[in-house]
Amino acid sequence: MFSTFQIKPVNQRLRSTTNSQSVHSIVEKVTSKSSVIINISGQRFVTSTTTLLKYPDTRLGKLVQQPLNAAAFTFEGDAEIFKEVLKFYITGDLHCPKNVCMSDFKNHLEFWGIDEKYISECCSGELAEEKRAGKAVQDV
């Protein structure tokens, strides 16, 4: 599960912010960094802060809004699923990898703070089937 997921900034020093510093100025500083490196269980992904800020209420969107003095983060998890998560930030389309069960995929989405409503229509049949199967088990 996700108890092993931990955020580990490469540079763990925090920049101090004053109460008068607005969220806007923090976001401006963050977006001035052109890229963010995300390491998922040894597999490196590079993207821009602008891409991650497309969904500011998700884990990665919130992360790049923080006044961290770091542009690289490490997580333990499934890199294949993360590829789809990152594609979602880039394209707006969210697909479950074929070799991953929907329940596992949903757990990852929950960790990353991405709502199920973003799952693409082509994968939503699997989601509906998984929900029906879960309800059938509860009814027994």
Can you tell me about this structure?
- With 140 residues, the protein is α+β, with helices and mostly antiparallel strands.
- The chain has a single domain (8-139), classed as Potassium Channel Kv1.1, Chain A (2-Layer Sandwich), CATH 3.30.710.10.
- The protein is 44% helix and 11% strand.
- The protein has 6 helices and 4 strands; from the N terminus they run βαββααβααα.
- The chain has helices spanning 23-31, 49-52, 59-63, 79-91, 102-112, 121-139; strands at 8-9, 36-40, 43-47, 72-75.
- It has a 4-stranded mixed β-sheet.
- A hairpin with a 2-residue loop joins β2 and β3.
- The radius of gyration is 17 Å and the shape is globular.
- It comes from Bugula neritina.
- GO terms for molecular function: voltage-gated potassium channel activity.
- It holds the Pfam family BTB_2.
- It is a multi-pass membrane protein.
Topology (SSEs and partners):
Elements: E1 8-9, H1 23-31, E2 36-40, E3 43-47, H2 49-52, H3 59-63, E4 72-75, H4 79-91, H5 102-112, H6 121-139
Parallel strand pairs: 2-4
Antiparallel strand pairs: 1-4, 2-3
Protein name: Potassium channel tetramerisation-type BTB domain-containing protein
Pfam family, one: BTB_2
Keywords: Ion channel, Ion transport, Membrane, Transmembrane, Transmembrane helix, Transport
